[in-house]
């Protein structure tokens, strides 16, 4: 329909209530009708705008969605930078929680509150792509005069709902907006593509959490072999069931009784539904992964049990199982030196920086340092500085005072720094800490006092700081991404944990240990590892380090038939990308092995640098440096 006729139809509708002609799109006419029923003023120019504190709460409540959209937002900053368009991400009620794109358009959007905190549901701003997509539950593009409010008609917007991968619940909206005179019919396709990407990212994150839950279940199953058990994710979805769980509790593929409840309320609710049921919340790095529900079968008395040795513990209010240096396995000379150094530094009380690639076991060292330097019962508090949007790290670390922002806990909330008082604060991925927060951490370390967000008085804290990073922090300092004064504070002492490929026969030692642990947890005989398989293990570059080895061995114990793990039992991709280097190498060969590992991961990911960096356990920027060092051609732009 021509723009002028849309304008005429809109004017007739708002002035006389005349029914729009048939060539006005039906979905637009229906939305105009709803807007009129909501008594929306057509002279509205701005959507309602939430306060900064309320925006903080909206983003916190939608953290999984934000993380899933992070890559798309980063790309939008680059690819929409000169396109006269912007990407908008909203929550399920139409409140904008992120924008990115052409700075001119982003700035122009503030005139109508098309910005963080703007609420664009139909009931407050009338027909618009975000609100109408929410109302209709399907993709929609609204162009120019199709908007109900005249002050918004300078925009053209294309919106697509994002839904939860498991139950199709509407989580938010991906919107591409720009000036009406720059109308692009491909905007809806772009929004749809991004929405699919975000859904896929959510799905991957869910599968990762479900796998972690199952590993915890396997560790705990021997303690309740005669009980019925449910493994549930944070939305109440059934991840696994053992035995015959309580009748009427599971409906379809979820436990409806806990669907909309905070996970900390689950134990009481489920105990009322199934008398005698015991619910244990599973947490990792402070995040609730889900819960294991145990229901004793009739006639069986419940005995107090503990996890098997070496098994990951279920998080409880009490301190997790303490780990000593003797539990950091490895007989290689390099590991002996690192253990001895860490044990000596543990007694010093100095802040320690533990460096090393992802998966090498940095947290094991951190926990052993804690156990050696703090009496039993004192807390060990891990915080992942790279695991949440930068705006939320402040309240997570420092806590917040009563009334700090709308939606805040009425009693305030204790941050991780205060929670670590008397014990150890372990900051993982400290190199990811935003520059603007680094001075506040430095102040805590220098003054021994923490100020929660919104508080006017500080609180004294006495804690041991152990930090971890897979980056070279000295390089980050030189690049201006990490404060030099903070670096010298957190790195008073340093420990470099070696990659698994540098530890020689430790690979076989660890593989056998993990096989025995997995077999014990599952009630199976421990399989031996064939010498030919051991040779392949020694030749593989292990980009994921000890974590990759353990996950692979756990899977092999379950899947291998017979009492021996042979070379044919190893994953096909593992054997195909194994690097043919002598099993015993000295430090002079490590660069060659690292180069081979980089090449193997690039081949495995077909040149996708982002995925290759993830497999190698390094930042993408670090991978680019390695490519230059080794003279490896960088894959073409657009492949990661």
From TrEMBL:
Naturally occurring in which organism (per UniProt)? Zavarzinia aquatilis
Nucleotide-binding in keyword set? yes
Q: Which UniProt keywords apply?
A: Activator, ATP-binding, DNA-binding, Nucleotide-binding, Transcription, Transcription regulation, Two-component regulatory system
Tell me the PANTHER family matching this sequence: PROPIONATE CATABOLISM OPERON REGULATORY PROTEIN, TRANSCRIPTIONAL REGULATORY PROTEIN
Q: Which domain of life is it from?
A: Bacteria
- InterPro entries of this UniProt entry? AAA+_ATPase (IPR003593), AAA_lid_NorR (IPR058031), GAF (IPR003018), GAF-like_dom_sf (IPR029016), Homeodomain-like_sf (IPR009057), HTH_Fis (IPR002197), P-loop_NTPase (IPR027417), Sigma_54_int (IPR002078)
> Which Pfam families has this protein been placed in?
AAA_lid_14 (PF25601), GAF (PF01590), HTH_8 (PF02954), Sigma54_activat (PF00158)
* UniProt keyword annotation of Transcription present: yes
**What GO biological process terms are annotated to this protein in UniProt?**
phosphorelay signal transduction system; regulation of DNA-templated transcription
One annotated GO molecular function: sequence-specific DNA binding
Lineage of the native species? Bacteria, Pseudomonadati, Pseudomonadota, Alphaproteobacteria, Rhodospirillales
Recorded protein name is: Sigma-54-dependent Fis family transcriptional regulator
* Residue span, Sigma-54 factor interaction domain: 328-558
């Amino acid at each position: 329909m021509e723009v002028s006729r849309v304008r005429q139809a809109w004017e007739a509708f708002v002035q006389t209530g005349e029914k729009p002609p048939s060539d006005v799109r039906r979905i637009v006419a229906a939305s105009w009708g709803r807007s009129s029923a909501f008594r929306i003023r057509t002279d509205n120019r701005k959507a309602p705008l939430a306060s900064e504190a309320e925006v903080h709460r909206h983003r916190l409540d939608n953290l999984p969605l934000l993380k899933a959209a992070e890559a798309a937002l980063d790309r939008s900053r680059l690819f929409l930078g000169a396109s006269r368009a912007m990407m908008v991400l909203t929550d399920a009620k139409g409140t904008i929680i992120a924008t990115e794109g052409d700075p001119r358009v982003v700035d122009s959007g503030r005139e109508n509150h098309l910005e963080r905190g703007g609420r664009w549901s139909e009931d407050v701003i009338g027909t618009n792509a975000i609100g109408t997509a929410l109302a209709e539950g399907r993709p929609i593009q609204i162009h120019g005069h199709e908007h109900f409010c005249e002050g918004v008609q300078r925009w053209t917007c294309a919106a697509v709902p994002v839904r939860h991968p498991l139950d199709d619940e509407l989580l938010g909206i991906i919107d591409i907006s720009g000036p009406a005179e720059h109308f692009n019919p491909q905007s809806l396709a772009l929004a749809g593509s991004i929405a699919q990407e975000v859904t896929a990212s959510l799905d991957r994150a869910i599968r990762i959490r479900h796998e972690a839950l199952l590993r915890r279940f396997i560790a705990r199953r021997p303690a309740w072999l005669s009980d019925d058990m449910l493994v549930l994710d944070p939305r109440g979805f059934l991840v696994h069931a053992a035995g015959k769980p309580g009748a009427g509790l599971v409906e379809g593929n979820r436990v409806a009784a806990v669907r909309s409840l905070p996970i900390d309320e689950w134990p009481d609710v489920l105990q009322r539904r199934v008398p005698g049921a015991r619910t244990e919340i599973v947490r990792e790095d402070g995040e609730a992964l889900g819960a294991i529900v145990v229901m004793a079968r009739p006639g069986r008395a419940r005995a107090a049990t503990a996890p098997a040795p070496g098994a990951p513990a279920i998080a409880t209010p009490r301190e997790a199982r303490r780990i000593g240096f003797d539990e950091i396995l490895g007989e290689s000379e390099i590991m002996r030196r690192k253990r001895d150094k860490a044990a000596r530094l543990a007694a010093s009380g100095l802040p320690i920086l533990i460096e090393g690639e992802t998966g090498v076991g940095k947290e094991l060292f951190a926990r052993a340092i804690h156990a050696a330097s703090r009496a039993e019962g004192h807390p060990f508090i891990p915080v992942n500085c790279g695991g949440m949007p930068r705006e939320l790290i402040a309240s997570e670390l420092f806590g917040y005072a009563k009334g700090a922002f709308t939606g805040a806990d009425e009693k305030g909330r204790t941050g991780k720094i205060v929670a670590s008082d008397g014990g150890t604060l372990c900051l993982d991925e400290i190199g990811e800490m935003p520059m603007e927060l680094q001075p506040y951490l430095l102040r805590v370390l220098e003054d021994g006092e923490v100020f929660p967000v919104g508080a006017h008085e500080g609180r004294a804290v006495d804690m041991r700081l152990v930090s971890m990073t897979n980056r070279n922090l000295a390089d980050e300092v030189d690049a201006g991404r990490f404060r030099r004064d903070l670096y010298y504070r957190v790195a008073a002492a340093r420990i470099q944990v070696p990659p698994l490929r540098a530890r020689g026969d430790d690979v076989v030692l660890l593989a056998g240990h993990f096989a025995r642990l997995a077999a014990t947890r599952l009630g199976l005989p421990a399989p031996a590892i064939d010498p030919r398989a051991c040779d392949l293990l020694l030749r593989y570059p292990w980009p994921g380090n000890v974590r990759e080895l353990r996950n692979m061995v756990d899977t092999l114990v379950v899947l291998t038939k017979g009492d021996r793990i042979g070379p044919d039992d190893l994953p096909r991709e593992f054997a195909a990308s194994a690097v043919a280097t002598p099993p015993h190498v000295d430090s002079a060969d490590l660069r060659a092995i690292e180069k081979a590992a980089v090449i193997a991961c690039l081949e495995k990911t077909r040149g996708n640098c982002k995925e290759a960096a993830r497999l190698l356990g390094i930042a993408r920027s670090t991978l680019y440096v390695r490519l230059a060092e080794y003279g490896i051609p960088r894959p073409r732009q657009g492949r990661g």
